[in-house]
Amino acid sequence: MFTKISKRTRFICLIILVIGAVFLGAYIHNYQVKIASQYQQTNVPTLFIHGFGSSYHAEKHMVTAIKRVHATNGVIRAEVSKTGRVTLVGHLRKNAVNPIVMINYQNNHERSYRTDGKWLRNVLQKLQQTYRFKKFNTVSHSVGNEAVMYYMADFAPQNKGLPQLNKEINIAGHFAGIRGYDAAKGNTLNAQGKPKHMIATYRALLKLRKTYPQNVAVLNIYGNIGDRSDGTVQNYSSKSLRYLVQKKAKSYQELEMKGKLAQHSKLHSNPKVDQAILKFLWEK
């Protein structure tokens, strides 16, 4: 036989549940803030940009590592169609902390770096229209680095009203060419990081020596598996970024990765790279 519960008892139970939910929510919130307290809390979005033949899935390891330590509480995706049209997947809260935008180029075999840069401009336009961001950071891998550099060289100077670059992380960049594809044989760098032989796509970026913003901090990460390359890109090619930006940038740092996870396509799944990203972007 079931005992009939009075309205008063049901009401009291409901009040207890509501109060419990409020306290639980407050506990969870405070716990997350405590974990994230070692990091700066900003509203500057960080754009993750994948490489040639890849997708936003290559960015997941890094983003997951950031979420795990609660250095961000907002992640969305920017889908870029084969014609450059941008659609945002997900939504960021107004007070999102260190928001992340995972860019996905549906045409991941585009061979024009300038087109890649144009599509990055389209992403920034969409983000500004939607969220009114003032600044942005980038974390780019392989060809994704060219998208950033060509945006900065060919589109940023004409788009002063768009969010301004704040911090730039380059991973496995091939600014002076790719071994077996367009890199000059026997190439070297001088003391300033200038390549002895410059390929056309590098020469097109030389304007950055005059136009690169002075308030940008740059971290250049490259892999060395033991032969002064990451297996795909020779280290001199990655390090040639220095000549393009160091003269103007607020700061420029290089970080060499070694071991099996220093291989070109494994760098974006390297826990040491994750830690470098966290430290450079947000650590107090």
UniProtKB/TrEMBL annotation:
One of its GO terms (molecular function) is hydrolase activity. Signal peptide: none annotated. Coiled coil: none annotated. The keyword NAD does not apply. It comes from the Bacteria. It holds the Pfam family DUF915. The keyword Hydrolase applies. Keywords: Hydrolase, Membrane, Transmembrane, Transmembrane helix. This is Cell surface hydrolase. It comes from Pediococcus cellicola.
